[in-house]
Amino acid sequence: MGEEVDRVEFTRADRTAFRDQVHRNLDAFARMLREARFDAERPMTGIEIELNLVDENNDPAMKNSEVLSAISDDAFQTELGQFNVEINVPPGQIDGDGLDKMEKSIRASLNAAEQKASRTGSSMVVVGILPTLMTDHITRDSLSTNPRYALLNDQIFAARGEDVQIAIDGVERLQVTADSIVPEAACTSTQFHLQVTPDAFPRYWNAAQAIAGVQLAVGANSPFLFGKELMRETRIALFEQAADTRTHELKTQGVRPRVWFGERWITSIFDLFEENSRYYPALLPVTSDEDPIAVLDRGDTPALTELRLHNGTIYRWNRPVYDVVRDRPHLRVENRVLPAGPTVVDTIANGAFYFGLVRALADDERPIWSQMSFSAAEENFHNAARQGIDAEVFWPGVGTARATELVLRRLLPLASQGLDQWEVDPAVRDRLLGIIEQRCLLNRNGASWQAEMFHEHYTLGQHGRRDALRAMLQRYRDHMHENIPVHEWPVD
Question: What SUPFAM superfamilies does the record tag this protein with (predicted)?
Fold first, then answer.
């Protein structure tokens, strides 16, 4: 969720000072880009996975403080809701058997953490939206105790001036009102980080935007919210609405939302940070004592604290990241498109598909974004959120086609080519991309399995709706712990 903050009230002077400091950060950042000051020797990748906590009945467990205390591992951190935690996987390289090692590391960490969490009466579930989460679980009391979240909540509602209206049409229709940002905590995601050079950043970001819809189609895993079956990736619409600071009037005027796909292809990472400062008022205007220009003048690396803090409150589905590690600055594309789950191996397969495909597209002599309108990429994204594995998307040279057919015929070969360019071991490449292939051939991902299993218990069985969701989630958890790819999960 970004940098820690400890201020509880902000004045007009605070906001003015913060805006000035963001602009000074931008000046320093532009100079760093001109002077090529960024680490680019060994590009690293990383993964963050947000998790849900459940009790013995598969209902949300509001115990993240107890669970984190029991786990006692810095890789696990608090998240927005008391029923959430997050694991940050140490950065690594994907060449050779790097993805295999990442999978084994994540499984070992989650298994060890699950054993410790069980002492609190809690279990961890890797899923996009917890199917058993209901409206009575999303009160302000469900916010994590970290003061940042209460402060962020207060600032968003001060900007809105009214409650959040959530309205989602899917298989069923949902319309609810919330007086806090806790519904945002329902959206648990997987975030892939890819370190790139400043020159390469726009190519990788544009490529990530172009494939976002296809990622969602094959990786959807969030069909239920508050007991209703909605979109195949309901998390997209929920996050867009739950974190929206705009009133109805501001939406009508065309003010940009804080959860944003974007509006154009870019030519520099600077474009995105400049948009942040131009379009979005600060939510957390906390300033540091750093003068970034003075830091550059003495040959050191500035933290650009205000730039990073502001960036952390603007939720692009592909977000630019500036970071400093061991006094060396670097840039990353943070891919925030996919939900968590269903298994660790599915997550790593999704990562292999993403890392390979963006590499191939970024290196293409005729970029895909030169053949495709930005609005088409955005429409693909929202179509895939609604329809999941059954989505139709537009692709240059193909026209409108089933996403699964596009993946099988065009994109898997490109992803394989890209993984070869990353020098991934061919056996690792084929195993992981084979999981994506089978999902497309069998037309089954996490969302479709959840929906089918639910109807086995509810429509065709004897369970009530809430008990059917609990029963489905229990089966989900059993398969999740076995680490069997979701396309192999039975429905009976």
Answer: Glutamine synthetase/guanido kinase
